[in-house]
Amino acid sequence: MEAHFEAAEAYEHAQLIAEIGIVLASLGVLLGSRPAWLASLVLALLCVGQLARTYVQTRGHVGHSVESVQQAGVAYQNLRKAHVGANDDADAVEALDPGGKLRATFPKPAVADGPAKSGH
Questions:
Q1: From CA 97, how far away is CA 90, in angstroms rounded?
Q2: Model confidence over 52-108: pLDDT tens digits?
Q3: CB distance 72 to 32 below 8 Å
Q4: Most exposed: 35, 59, 98, 117, by fewest CB within 10 Å?
């Protein structure tokens, strides 16, 4: 995000340089002033240079960040695949009965001590 904000600011600077160049070019044409016209061409070159520099810097920063985000996404998906189904039943019971209040009302199953003795 920081790279995008810095790029936006640099593009705004390039736009400002271009606008000043347009004004100088207009004055140069209206007044027939060759120095004003040449100054507007210099500003146009500065604007193009600013745009190119900003593009190259931003592409490097954003490209690196995009790779990092993609790697994190792959790692996250792999982690989700590893944990899917591990505790689904217990999670469902806990979601339906938070705190175990309903489960506490059910009778506990009897534990058998061994085989049942028959009187016959």
A1: 10
A2: 999 998 888 887 778 888 888 888 887 777 666 566 667 777 777 787 777 777 777
A3: no
A4: 117
